[in-house]
Amino acid sequence: MDRISKLKEFLAHQPKDNFLRHALALEYLKINEDEKAKILFLSILTESPDYVGSYYHLAKLLEKLGEKKSAVEWYEKGMEAAKLAKDQHSYNELQAAYEDLIF
User: Fold this and answer.
1) Which domains does the chain have, with CATH numbers?
2) pLDDT exceeds cutoff 90 at 1
3) Is 37's pLDDT higher than 90?
4) Which of 1, 69, 77, 92 is most buried when burial is the number of CB atoms within 10 A of its CB?
């Protein structure tokens, strides 16, 4: 069974598991199913804005899709979430990507 099928199977039993949804979104990115990944990342961050790991990937995806304004907004939201979580590593990663985009 491929990874996507296995993750979907797990999600059938735990549909709101952010780790599983994030992992599935990353698998979709690998096969260029960008819209499916975007929907998952947006769902995670709408329901769980403290799930810091998804901000970077969503913003990077938005950059790839040419949605610069939205990418900037999600990087900013991610930096704020990382600050609140006291997650300096994620904050630095988000800030670097944000600065690369706007400068």
Assistant:
1) 3-102 (1.25.40.10)
2) no
3) yes
4) 77
